Amino acid sequence: MAAAIAIADADGLAAVSMRAVAARLETGAASLYRYLSSRDDLLDLMADRVAAELRPYPEPDGHWLDTLLRMARAQRALHERHPWLSELIQRASAIGPETLAFFDACLGVMAPLPAPPTAKFEAIAMMNGIAVLFARQRTAGGASPFAGLDLTPYPHLVAALTQPPAAPPATDLFDRALGGLLRGLLAPDPA
Amino acid sequence: MAAAIAIADADGLAAVSMRAVAARLETGAASLYRYLSSRDDLLDLMADRVAAELRPYPEPDGHWLDTLLRMARAQRALHERHPWLSELIQRASAIGPETLAFFDACLGVMAPLPAPPTAKFEAIAMMNGIAVLFARQRTAGGASPFAGLDLTPYPHLVAALTQPPAAPPATDLFDRALGGLLRGLLAPDPA
DNA sequence: GTAAACTGCAAACGTCGTTCGCAGTTTTGG
DNA sequence: CCAAAACTGCGAACGACGTTTGCAGTTTAC
User: Fold this and answer.
1) Which nucleotide is nearest to B39 (CA to C1')?
2) How close B26 gets to chain A, by Cα (Å)?
3) Where along chain B do the CATH 1.10.357 domains lie?
4) Is A108 on the interface with B (CB under 8 A)?
């Protein structure tokens, strides 16, 4: 399992073949089936294993939003360390004990809030999604995706690309975006 | 290509094998390579083909935010029609002319705004991400992902699940969340 | 000390993407 | 009008994949 995670970190999920994992363990591919029922099993275990890196969960001492944001930042860092994770968590079977524990901890932080459970589940889904979104942006931020393309039919695009990049924004967008979203979902609407 | 999209809509991306596509076209698998250089090529073409469904782009008559929200809603509807699309757009090679045209249209709507280009690109990425997020939530909303799991170690989870589901929120979360996000990214910060 | 259980693994099966080579057809050009 | 060239369809095969089977070799249980 650690071998599989190492391969995925290095060469992506597609490189995690039973034969590759077995080779790294200096054994045969068929031997893995003594411990795993299938490759999907292995992927599920990988997802839940790295989810353990979200521990320890922060103590809910401050405001609930601060605590949730801390947890969301941990999620983003996790997805930056393991870019392949986002491909796995959209599979329902990848929900293991560690993932559930994180869910439960989030719900624990939100427990004092009067919002209905459906809103809380939506809020957790948003946390996950935003964390993945920002992690991907940082992970794939290397090369410009417009290299080698004929951009002449797209005037606004060339205008935006020729303009020099400005300084990064002062406050972190992640906190502002997610904070606003969670507040809108969970807090009694002040509007 | 239409055959491949039909297969993906019906049975998912994994079912789009060269042999399956060829069978639906009543031909041999090798024949496809007269028109496609690889399966990845086919996937890229599929992604750009369905991106054409985003047309016609709305006229930028109202406020820029209204126009962007309309375009984001079209994206969400697209991802609900083709759930496999979200797996494709994270590949850089999937950026085709239709995708670029949509990008360009978004930038056109944002053209009067004084925000730097980087902020506008981030805003488009957020639009994409949020649209995928909401589409997935509606697509995979069928069965509860906690079926057949032992939830006893997760007290907050069982507490939330036993509570009866409340009525859905009044205003659409999609507009509120994305609107707030885009305003925060693009409009001069009033804080 | 024998029986039972467990472990490792080569070989094989079916499916996948892809390539090759060869027929059959269409287009070209003199 | 016909041969040369180009294009098209595709059966067969290659390597890699996930997975199963069967059999040795080893460990455990009684």
Assistant:
1) C17
2) 30
3) 49-142+155-186
4) yes
**pLDDT per position as a tens digit, A96-141:** 999 999 999 999 999 999 989 888 998 999 899 999 999 988 877 6
Q: Give pLDDT < 50 ranges for chain A.
A: 191
| Residue A30 burial (C-beta neighbours within 10 Å; 0-12, 13-18, 19+) | exposed
Check whether domain A1-36 has CATH 1.10.10.60, yes or no: yes
A residues 138-177 near B, CB within 8 Å? 140, 143, 145-146, 149, 151, 153-157, 159-161, 163, 165-166, 168-169, 173, 176-177
N-to-C CA span, chain A: 50
Q: For chain B, what percent of residues have pLDDT higher than 70?
A: 93
| CA distance, residue A26 to nearest chain B CA (Å) | 30
SS (H, E, C) A3-15: HHHHHHHHHCHHH
Which chain B residues are Cβ-neighbours of A111 within 8 angstroms?
156, 159
Q: Indicate the residue of A108, A117, A180 with minimum beta-carbon distance to B184.
A: A180
The helix (H) or strand (E) run that includes residue A65 is helix A64-81
Instruction: Please give the Cα distance from B73 to B80 (Å, whole number).
Output: 11
Query: CATH: 3.30.1740, 1.10.357, 1.20.1070, 2.40.10. Which one for B49-142+155-186?
Result: 1.10.357
Q: Pinpoint the residues of chain A covered by CATH 1.10.357.10.
A: 40-142+157-186
CATH 1.10.10.60 maps onto chain A at 1-36
A40-142+157-186 belongs to which CATH class?
A: mainly alpha
Helix, strand, or coil (residue A191) = coil
Structure tokens at A148: 């080698």
Give the nearest chain B residue to A165 (CA atoms): B118
C1’ D12 / CA B19, Å: 15
